[in-house]
Design goal:
Layout lengths: L1 H12 L4 E6 L5 E2 L2 E2 L2 E5 L7 H17 L16
Antiparallel strand pairs: 1-4, 2-3
Helix pairs in contact: 1-2
Amino acid sequence: EASQRLEGMLRHQLPSIKIMGPGEPMIAKIRNQYLMNILLKMIRGKSDLNQIKLHIQDSTNMLSAEKTFRNVRFVVDVDPV
């Protein structure tokens, strides 16, 4: 549910960015923690990366502040392979 809320927030804040997910990775559970991925695709040089990072950070902070999602951990990977 947290990944769906984050995806919705990012879609609203970043309408020009292609957002794929949320989706489960190949290994969806590690050490009793469930994983979900959201991938943002943008054209290099045409998007303001710092502005996008701020939107992601603001969205994750807002979700972490909610009681329901306090135990959810968000990890942002800027250049996934």
